[in-house]
Amino acid sequence: MDKYWIALSSIEETDSSFILRLYNYFGDIESVFNADNLSGVEGLSVKKAENFLRLRDKVNPDKVLDEVLNRGIKFFTYDSPDYPKMLKNIDNPPAILYYKGNPQSINFERTLAVVGSRRATRYAKEALQKIISELCNTDICIVSGLASGIDTTAHESALENGLKTIGVIASGFDFTYPAANRDLYKRIENGGGLIFSEYYPTFEPLKYRFPQRNRIVSGLSYGTVVAEASLKSGALITANLTLEQGRELMCIPGLITNPNTQGIYKLIKNGASIITCSDDILEALGWEIKIEQKTIFDVPELSNDEKIIYEALEIEEKGIDELQAYTKLSIENLLTYLTTMELKGIIKQVDGDRYRKI
């Protein structure tokens, strides 16, 4: 039966809603593929029916199945017992989910979507990194769209903190978009989680497919965190889909002077939860998960002077002059400590002579 799902998904002029419409009418996918009369399907125009049958007749189910398997791609079909149950409950679920990675590594009961601007500010990325780091080594799975900006930060932060992650792409697996995320794709495929696509491997990342895939990002998840979003953005589309799907919507507040937070504050005014730490997420979703919070004194091998420097960076980044005034250290000792702490991965130099904690 699987080959018929794949055969229908390989017809670029069809989509999941059309395939599932016929599936619900005929009762099984083989009957859909072999149908020669669609006149009984309510609301289906003669032209659309004829066009489908014409394109269907050009497809060899065994051939397209081999093309998928030969690429090392696996899949869940809509009628598969392993198809994610959260996704099955949304309007217009994908008829098929192609994937790479290990679904057994994912706890589908702890899925959290993260979306936001492709041109995210450093503040938004750092805020998101902080929140995800507080979920370190739990069974929470971060779901996002593998785009640049917030998506990339979400996936990378998940991997860095021992979390699994699901990337949902807007093309078939023959394409990697953006190309800069090629290594990230591989890290996820090779143990970091899963990459999902509803598109046959040869389908290109066309513009209209990006908002289409957003319903899968939110649909897989119990809640969605929006890290940054303008009033006209894909993140806002996902936020609206989250509400339509009856899932929890959460927002990270940002600077009111940033155009990319206009969408955030619109969502908050309309009832979205404000989150500033991982506990806010757990409370909003009703999840009970033990998280060990780190304090400054959990950071290994810090001298007393290094602890003072670290405390100075607790609230915000500081320059050399500010740090010297706070710590009362000589410039020579201060620079030595800063270099040592950078090598330990505790702080990071940004914007010339300014430093921030990691």
Structure explained in plain terms:
It contains 16 helices and twelve strands. It is an alpha/beta fold and 358 residues long. The chain has three domains: 1-69; 103-285, Rossmann fold (3-Layer(aba) Sandwich); 296-357, Arc Repressor Mutant, subunit A. The strands form two sheets. Strands 1-2-6-5-4-3-7-8-9 form a nine-stranded mixed β-sheet, sandwiched between helices. Strands 10-12-11 form a three-stranded antiparallel β-sheet. A hairpin with a 3-residue loop joins strand 11 (347-350) and strand 12. The longest helix is centred in the C-terminal third of the chain and has 13 residues, at 331-343.
In short:
This protein has 358 residues and is of the alpha/beta class. Helix content is 42%, strand content 14%.
What are the salient characteristics of this protein?
358 residues; alpha/beta; Rossmann fold; Arc Repressor Mutant, subunit A; 3 domains; nine-stranded mixed beta sheet; three-stranded antiparallel beta sheet; 42% helix
Topology:
Elements: H1 2-9, H2 16-26, H3 29-34, H4 46-56, H5 61-70, E1 74-77, H6 85-88, E2 96-101, E3 111-115, H7 122-133, E4 141-144, H8 150-160, E5 164-168, H9 182-192, E6 193-197, H10 209-219, E7 223-226, H11 234-244, E8 248-251, H12 262-269, E9 273-274, H13 278-285, H14 304-312, E10 318-319, H15 320-327, H16 331-343, E11 347-350, E12 354-357
Parallel strand pairs: 3-4, 3-7, 4-5, 5-6, 7-8, 8-9
Antiparallel strand pairs: 1-2, 2-6, 10-12, 11-12
Helix pairs in contact: 1-5, 7-8, 8-9, 10-11
Overall pLDDT score:
92
Distance between the termini: 51 Å
Strand content: 5-15%
Q: Which sequence of strands runs across the widest sheet?
A: 1-2-6-5-4-3-7-8-9
**Main sheet characteristics:** 9 strands, mixed
Helical region count? 16
Tally the beta strands. 12
Low-confidence stretches: none
CATH architecture type of the largest domain: 3-Layer(aba) Sandwich
Order of SSEs: HHHHHEHEEHEHEHEHEHEHEHHEHHEE
Radius of gyration: 24 Å
- CATH-defined topology of the largest domain: Rossmann fold
Can you identify the CATH class of the largest domain? Alpha Beta
What is the SS-derived class? alpha/beta
Q: Label the overall shape.
A: elongated
How many distinct folded domains?
3
Helix content: 40-55%
